[in-house]
Amino acid sequence: MDAFLIEGGRKIGGEVKISGSKNASLPILAATLLTDDDVILKNAPDLSDVRTMLKLLSYIGKEIEKKDDSLIVKQGEKINTEAPYDLVKTMRASVLVLGAMIGKYHRARVSFPGGCAIGARPIDQHLKGFEALGVKIDIEEGYIVAGVKKLVGNRVVFDVPTVGGTENVLMAAVFSEGGAVLENAAMEPEVVDLANFLNSMGAKISGAGTPTIQVEGVKKLHGSDYSIIPDRIEAATYFIAGAMAGGEVVVDSLIPEHIEAVLKKADESGVDFSVEDSRIIVRGGRKLRGVQIKTQPYPGFPTDVQAQMMSMLTRAQGISVIVETIFENRFMHVNELNRMGANIKVEDRTAIINGVKKLKGAPVMASDLRASASLVLAGLVAEGVTKISRIYHLDRGYESMECKLNALGASVKRIKE
Ligand code: UD1
């Protein structure tokens, strides 16, 4: 297994280019199942989660070519409407092929995704949405078995705004007869990107990015040549790296509106930055203040940046409070940050961070994707060497993180353990 060795205390500076969004790429790749034509996707990041989705698409029957920075997805000879346990267990987002296969083939057999480290993460809302469209769902030997003769347009009201649920049901709804309406839909930019991609293939979707999405059913979707949005979570991570360890860092090729909630809290905390079109220039070195944060669905503060922000706040003056409202078990980085000298206490879903003067390098363990990123950030500013084990979590969602950080002047070494 790979680990990172980070020599802390180096000032970072320069420009870092943000890659394509992981969380937009996964549903968009699943949505290529909705057409028999070729699809060209630009700006898809080279990440292990994306490779898992490509493996799953190949298993189902797509052929994938890589050309420069594009992926070309073509229809293969034979289609197999199944997603086996081995592929789903490594990545929960594999369940997104369910909606696409229901939409295109009217049947699917997809392994039930288990829980995961950050919480139970049920898919009841996905299934409720499919059922509203007339789909019959059975659970057989750990698999979701879905079948439908004709997808009917209907009103789907989600009990909670779910990103994956909205995306999954949207993919099934594009071919529904009579038009579907999704209410209390997730408003995340990745949902909007999926809707834009589906529309580029001939779907008729409006309202994505608001709580009500309207879908006028169509008979067929055609191919597309589409560019995926930049990864807002990666952008926020490098922005925080700059605030903690800069120098002056230019975070380039992002959509600043997508991280507005993060920028607002950073500003409140005293981070020095300016926003220019698709770049943010952030300058480190300021004394930061403690702030209060509550994670919320978009446009609120993203749960996927909670751990990284906590890392920054470990050294802010005074007390910070972070309430995690989306996932019940997403504070696994706390013990590791405390091992590095932070002073954080957790009560239920609230973390109370008492600012300390400095962090010290220590051996720590990555527990999930964003928790790993928070440890990398802490390692950049800690005195001495930080060793982060289980870096495979990080490789799921950050493209060449050590290369990007080293290009900024950090010292991050990948080693085999
Ligand atoms: C997506 C993101 C993940 C991010 C999360 C919240 C991808 C691949 N992953 O995950 O990085 O942290 O959004 O922004 O895009 N819920 C239910 N029933 C359901 C579905 C969800 O109760 O059927 C609950 C979940 O337990 C959670 C909340 O709804 O408390 C939000 O989850 P959801 O938006 O579905 O997250 P994901 O799509 O899994």
What does this structure look like?
With 417 residues, the chain is an alpha/beta fold. The protein has two domains: 2-19 and 230-416, Enolpyruvate transferase domain (UDP-n-acetylglucosamine1-carboxyvinyl-transferase, Chain); 22-227, UDP-n-acetylglucosamine1-carboxyvinyl-transferase, Chain (Alpha-beta prism), CATH 3.65.10.10. The chain contains 14 helices and 24 strands. The protein has helices at residues 22-31, 48-60, 85-88, 97-105, 124-132, 163-173, 189-200, 232-245, 260-269, 306-313, 333-339, 369-381, 392-395, 401-407; strands spanning 2-7, 12-17, 39-42, 62-67, 70-75, 82-83, 107-111, 136-140, 143-147, 155-157, 180-183, 204-206, 212-216, 224-227, 246-252, 272-276, 279-283, 292-294, 319-323, 343-347, 350-354, 363-365, 385-389, 411-416. The strands form six sheets. A four-stranded mixed sheet has the order 22-23-1-24. Strand 10 (155-157), helix 6 and strand 11 (180-183) form a beta-alpha-beta unit. Helix 1 (22-31) packs parallel to helix 7 (189-200) and helix 6 packs parallel to helix 7 (189-200). It is globular. The mean pLDDT is 96. Residues 23, 26, 93, 119, 121-126, 160, 162-165, 186, 190, 303-304, 326-327 line the site of uridine-diphosphate-N-acetylglucosamine.
